[in-house]
Amino acid sequence: MVSEITLEKSRQMYEKAKTLIPGGVSSPVRAIKPHPFYTASANGSKIRDLDGNEYIDYCLAYGPAVLGHNHPVIKEAIRQQLDKGWLYGTPTELEVTLAEKVASYYPSIDMLRFVSTGTEATMSALRLARGFTRRNKFIKIEGGFHGAHDAVLVKAGSGATTLGEPDSLGIPADFTKHTLQAPYNDIETMTSLVEKNRDDLAAVIIEPVLGNIGPVLPLPGYLEELRKLTEENDVLLIFDEVITGFRLAMGGAQEYFGVVPDMTTLGKIVGGGLPIGVFGGKREIMEMIAPSGAVYQAGTFSGSPCSVAAGIAMVDYLNEENIHAKLNSAGDYMRAALSEIVEDEGLDYHVCGIASMFKIFFGDEPHNYQEVLKCDKEGYLAFFHRMLASGVFLPPSQFETNFISAVHSDEDIEKTLEAYLENL
Ligand SMILES: Cc1ncc(COP(=O)(O)O)c(C=O)c1O
Ligand SMILES: N[C@H](C=O)CCC(=O)O
Fold it and tell me: What are its GO cellular component terms (predicted)?
């Protein structure tokens, strides 16, 4: 464990970066105060900065690196694809192969389309839901994050909540007047909202586990009741599984909880760590997408061969090596050990999580956005810096989820627990 670290090269890089890139970062969650560390390389469970400091990584690129960094199987798949070229602008067999594999793990998906990010996936899924139902409104969950397109940047989690700006400037009120909000885990409020708006309500979109202010878990029965409610009112249910897809299980949260949505969005893991997004669902809905139908959606980089090749390698490896059993038991171990530390230290904190997602909330157990906001986010930030100095990289916000990869060793986890004990 390192007790003093030098971040001088990162500091200098930040000074330069912020003159060229707003905030010195390419995505706001990376803007650690007073400055982020700039990464030089990453391998396995470790990430290394420009000053040569090495950290055990639980941010894992915000989820995609489920096999750790630089995994040889994924790297080989990308390398082989590079030899054949990396962008064609034509359909490929690769897309058909990955589509078939995804559909086999997600029985709710009859057909799907590849895009380049999770943002595009949810944007397209919502457009399609509106086109299919010929209705305008949708309901999202307060604190849910579905990427950075206009309609969903309302009470959005992730960096938007970290920065205290869950509603973005630059989005005309007209663009979000059809975006309704419901608190998570509150089926009564959801029911009245659905019933009141059903004539013009296309969909409910939800992260089954709130991963961008969490993880905050669904209360028993919540997802099942939401399914029943949407079905009875003829409203589409969209599971945004950009985080939970291939993370909780091969079949994501829908397999884990046994609740079947009408549409699903995926991203992150399904591209093996390269840019990707997927939206899919029932055949009659998906066939409304151009060119089969009148809902337009397109992209130069959609189905990008390296992303798809990496995704195939990822999905096969996760399945063949039964990786979720290992991941989930590492998650169970981590949460149990952290709970013991929190209890022994007499802290009023709560350890939460599921499968290989975990987090110490600096406050009581939250069940929704309003409760999450009560956490001591400044206290968390100070703790984050102490952990960094001890060689552990957690996501730099109380609202982002920690992830474990399949290559975190027992030694990594023990070192991490020592650091928690030392720094809490
Ligand atoms: C649940 C969820 N949906 C959508 C997105 C958007 O994905 P991307 O960052 O790939 O655009 C994210 C993450 O950013 C996410 O966590
Ligand atoms: N919480 C976000 C996605 O899950 C983090 C990614 C980003 O916004 O850069």
Answer: cytoplasm
